[in-house]
Design brief:
Elements (H helix, E strand, L loop, with lengths): L2 H26 L23 H28 L7 E3 L6 E4 L8 H7 L4 E3 L5 E3 L2 E4 L4 E3 L5 E7 L2 E2 L1 E5 L2 E5 L6 E6 L16 E5 L1 E6 L1 E4 L10 E5 L28 H8 L9 E6 L2 E3 L3 E6 L5 E3 L2 E3 L6 E3 L4 E6 L2 E3 L6 E3 L4 E6 L2 E3 L6 E4 L18 E6 L2 E3 L4 E6 L2 E6 L2 E3 L3 E6 L3 E6 L2 E3 L4 E6 L3 E6 L2 E12 L3 E4 L2 E15 L4 E3 L2 E5 L4 E6 L2 E3 L2 E6 L4 H8 L2 H24 L11 H4 L6 H8 L1
Parallel strand pairs: 2-5, 4-7, 5-9, 6-10, 7-11, 9-12, 10-13, 11-14, 12-15, 13-16, 14-17, 15-18, 16-19, 17-20, 18-21, 19-22, 20-23, 21-24, 22-25, 23-26, 24-27, 25-28, 26-29, 27-30, 28-31, 29-32, 30-33, 31-34, 32-35, 33-36, 34-37, 35-38, 36-38, 37-39, 38-40, 39-41, 40-42, 40-43, 41-44, 42-45
Antiparallel strand pairs: 1-2, 3-4, 7-8
Helix pairs in contact: 1-5, 1-6
């Protein structure tokens, strides 16, 4: 084998080894920056500081106490002769003052007359409530005169104010709000410990009118006892719809059927159907509650210019069956879990000009999933919910997601700034007909928008998406991503993976530095007419390896090396060659002429 053949063989072997090394480096080397994992770390938010076992038992005890007092209120006037007006029930550990129905409201001054020891004014002008209050159906409780109402809350017992089917009024003057707080009279300090229960305020059915108020350090564990809680009332026996069938004629063998009027007269309002709570909360501050503000079974509720801060669980919770609610110009800060929750079975919710920041979990959570997936013991429906609008708001610095939309349909996010979370907006759990339009979503640590788990008919349009690794990540979803502006993107403006049959990426302007502006690894995705003139592919170890791994690059490199080696071989062949290398002159083998003196010395 000639030298040239050996060199060519060596060259081909080196090229093969380089190609294999490049391929392996690409496979196991620098990964794609967008892994598709949009799961946040703060799954449950910051830990609750109380005692779950003890507090859940206290919640159950409160339910039993209220059920007993409410049942008593329905029968006492007929069983106790001469009882006309408020009365006390010897509940433990603290007694309960019951306020029955009447047209005139119960005022602060009257409460003092009714229970001088239980509702007493202190030397500093504050009021100390040391017994429970229950206002029954059609009663009106007006606390507007108590500028500083302190509710006893100690390790030995706590007080509550509960309105059952009546009306709660709290109205402060400009610069002089009504302050309601928990307090331990022994120390004079507010109660910040929930493990032994804590004072709370609740309206169960009826209506609410709160303005110019401050609620501080109230509530524990559950939503009903969470601090400031407005819930619908469930009747002992819900009155069904009655037919208009007339009674049988006299003499018929069949049993006679009562008319609807007969039924109404017999019940006489004693068994009431479920009634939602309704009302307004304006110009109010709520701090340090277990739940900041808890709504359930509410309709037409309006919350405006309200600040909720430092909730031990979630800030503003719209729990079950909240409909036609409006939340306007409201701020929710530093909640341990979610800032605002729109829970299952709640619908027709409007959030306008809200600010949510510092949440231990999501800024806003919208859960439109069905209450059940099939036949169930409670008979709950299997249809989803939705119709939630988030408009002109600011969602920033929340530990997990800015906004999460799970299931349901008809949710819109418009003209809203979402910043500094793990993912800005997440749409999952087969949510449908979701619109994310005209927002600024920037500074997320992973993705600006993530659509996954069967989310369909999602419109991502006219948004400004900036300073993020991946702009929009679609995994097994269906999205129309159009007319958006992507700035300072670090990996991909849009990523499509999995099944994305209906996804379209059209007419977007994309600027950034990354491997690809649009990474399409999906089945069924489509992209066209996107402006990528401002996209640059950075020089990285991965990009260099990918460049070297191109077939044409390897071929030209091999040809170039072959030309160089051939030239070197030919040059060596043209160099002068001595045909008699063994015929060396004697002068080259010795030191030349030897002086005579040296020879004479050597002879001696």
């Amino acid at each position: 084998m000639s030298v040239l053949q050996r060199l060519i063989g060596t060259l081909l072997l080196v090229v093969t080894v380089i190609a294999l090394a490049v391929a392996v480096a690409i496979i196991i080397g620098e990964p794609d920056a967008d892994t598709g994992d949009a799961t946040g770390d703060a799954a449950s938010g910051r830990p609750y500081p109380g005692d779950p076992t003890a507090e859940s038992q206290l919640v159950a005890a409160e339910r039993d106490r209220l059920a007993m007092v409410t049942a008593l209120a329905a029968s006492v006037p007929w069983r106790v002769d001469g009882l006309d007006g408020p009365y006390q029930v010897p509940t433990t550990p603290l007694p309960t003052l019951v306020l029955p129905a009447r047209p005139e409201p119960y005022t602060v001054a009257e409460l003092q007359d009714l229970s001088p020891d239980g509702f007493a004014q202190q030397a500093d002008g504050s009021w100390l409530l040391s017994e429970n209050i229950v206002a029954t159906r059609d009663a009106i409780l007006d606390l507007s005169g108590a500028t500083d109402l302190r509710m006893l809350s100690t390790p030995g017992g706590f007080t509550s104010i509960v309105v059952v089917g009546g009306t709660l009024r709290v109205s402060g003057a400009p610069g002089a709000p009504v302050t309601v707080s928990s307090v331990d009279p022994n120390s004079g300090a507010r109660d910040t410990t929930t493990a032994d229960g804590r004072a709370y305020v609740r309206v169960n059915g009826g209506s609410v009118d709160v303005s110019g108020a401050v609620f501080t350090d109230l509530g524990f564990w559950g939503g009903e006892t969470g601090g400031l809680s407005f819930t619908g009332r469930s009747g002992e026996n819900t009155s069904p719809t009655l037919s208009d069938q007339s009674a049988n004629a006299p003499g018929d063998a069949a049993a006679p059927m009562l008319t609807p009027d007969d039924v109404a007269a017999a019940l006489d309002g004693k068994n009431q159907a479920s009634t939602p709570v309704t009302g307004t909360v304006r110009d109010t501050t709520i701090t340090g509650g277990a739940y900041g503000l808890f709504l359930s079974d509410a309709t037409g509720f309006h919350i405006e210019n309200t600040r909720i801060e430092g909730a031990l669980v979630a800030g503003l919770v719209l729990h079950r069956a909240v409909t036609d609610a409006q939340i306007v110009s409201t701020t929710v800060l530093d909640s341990a879990a979610d800032g605002i929750v729109v829970d299952r079975s709640s619908t027709s919710i409007s959030l306008t000009d809200v600010t949510v920041s510092g949440s231990g979990r999501n800024g806003i959570t919208v859960d439109g999933r069905p209450l059940a997936g099939g036949p169930n013991a409670a008979g709950a429906p299997t249809s989803g919910y939705g119709d939630v609008q988030i408009t002109g708001s600011r969602i920033a610095d929340n530990d997990r997601y800015g906004i999460e939309i799970s299931g349901g349909s008809g949710v819109t996010v418009t003209d809203t700034d979402v910043a500094a979370s793990i993912v800005g907006v997440v749409v999952d759990d087969a949510a449908a007909s979701v619109s994310i339009d005209g927002n600024t979503i920037a500074g997320q640590s992973r993705q600006a928008i993530a659509l996954r788990d069967g989310a369909t008919q999602v419109g991502v349009t006219h948004n400004r998406i900036a300073s993020v690794n991946t702009g929009v990540h679609v995994a097994d979803g269906d999205a129309q991503i159009q007319d958006n502006r992507f700035l300072a993107i670090g990996s991909h403006a849009v990523t499509l993976v999995g099944h994305a049959g209906g996804s379209r990426v059209l007419d977007n302007t994309i600027a950034g530095h990354g491997t690809d502006p649009i990474h399409d690894d999906a089945i069924g995705g489509y992209a066209a007419r996107n402006d990528v003139e401002q996209w640059a592919t950075p020089v990285t170890p991965r990009s260099v390896l990918e460049f070297l791994a191109q077939p044409l690059t390897l071929i030209w490199a091999a040809l170039g090396a072959l030309v160089v080696i051939t030239a070197l071989v030919r040059r060596r062949a043209r160099e002068p060659h001595n045909p008699y290398p063994e015929h060396v002159p004697l002068t080259e083998l010795t030191r030349g002429i030897i002086p005579a003196e040296s020879l004479r010395r050597s002879e001696k």
